[in-house]
UniProtKB/TrEMBL annotation:
Region feature Disordered, mapped onto this chain: 1-41
Protein name (record): Leucine-rich repeat-containing protein 23
UniProt feature, compositional bias: Acidic residues: 1-11, 19-36
Cytoplasm in keyword set: yes
Keywords per UniProt: Cell projection, Cilium, Coiled coil, Cytoplasm, Cytoskeleton, Flagellum, Leucine-rich repeat, Repeat
Top-level lineage group: Eukaryota
Coiled-coil annotated residue ranges, if any: none
Subcellular location: Cytoplasm, Cytoskeleton, Flagellum axoneme
Length: 251
């Protein structure tokens, strides 16, 4: 090969490399990520490993395990849970779940934790005895579909919620604590919950306080790390308020 041919070949290779380096890597879409996931079903073996807390059921003559811990199993499908109707405490954190509909069969469920999954919604069939629910660090977009009448504590920390909606005070008569830190909220409107006592809204993008006059039993309000343009929005009806955190709320 002559020097001239070598130079031409070298230049072509360099241009090709520069072109490759100049191309930006595209982030995969949710659909592409979903397609790339291998299905991992909840199995009887996983159930055996995770079940505990033997309790009486029904008329007291039968017994069943009522607690399940199945964390960090890469689960994508929990259909098997429909057969375990006596479960009361379920922890499915750090999996790959997007569908929680099988939990609708767990009518005795008291406590649910599904942190760190791939959920985009909190929608579940109404669970009559559910008292504590944690959906932290998912991809949840809204607060629709939460209708559990005995729910007392709701954790939605670290999601992608922009607007609070669908929280029916007629249904959620026992809801006393709502955790919404680290979302994308821009306003406090939508919290029509007169029984609410603890509200955590830190690390959002809130610029205006709205609808707080209905929170007549609120004792704790965290608004740290927001973008409040004004402190208007507080109401004389909030007579129970004891703790207010407004650190770093400059716009």
């Amino acid at each position: 090969m002559s020097d001239e041919e070598f130079d031409d070949d070298y230049s072509a290779n360099e241009r090709e490399k520069e072109g490759e380096e100049g191309e930006e890597e595209k982030e995969p879409t949710e659909e592409e990520e979903e397609e790339s996931l291998s299905p991992h079903l909840l199995t009887e073996e996983i159930m055996k490993e995770g079940l505990s807390l033997l309790c009486k059921t029904g008329n007291g003559l039968a017994h069943a395990y009522v607690k399940l811990e199945a964390k960090e199993k890469d689960l994508t499908d929990i259909s098997l849970l429909q057969n375990y109707i006596h479960l009361r405490y379920v922890d499915l954190s750090e999996n790959q779940l997007r569908d929680l509909s099988p939990l609708g069969s767990l009518i005795h469920l008291l406590w649910l934790k599904v942190d760190g999954n791939r959920l985009i919604s909190t929608r579940l069939p109404e669970l009559p005895y559910l008292q504590i629910a944690s959906f932290a660090h998912n991809r949840i977009k809204d607060t629709e579909g939460i209708t559990h009448p005995r729910l007392g504590s709701l954790n939605l920390k670290g999601n992608e919620i922009q607007v609070i909606s669908g929280l029916d005070p007629g249904k959620l008569t026992n809801l006393h604590t709502v955790e919404l830190r680290g979302n994308k909220l821009e306003t406090t409107t939508g919290l029509h919950l007169p029984k609410l006592k603890n509200l955590y809204l830190a690390q959002n993008f809130i610029t205006h306080l709205e609808g707080l006059e209905e929170l007549v039993q609120l004792t704790t309000l965290h608004l740290r790390d927001n973008r409040l343009e004004t402190l208007d929005g507080f109401s004389k009806s909030m007579k129970c308020l004891q703790y207010l955190n407004l650190r770093w709320v400059l716009p």
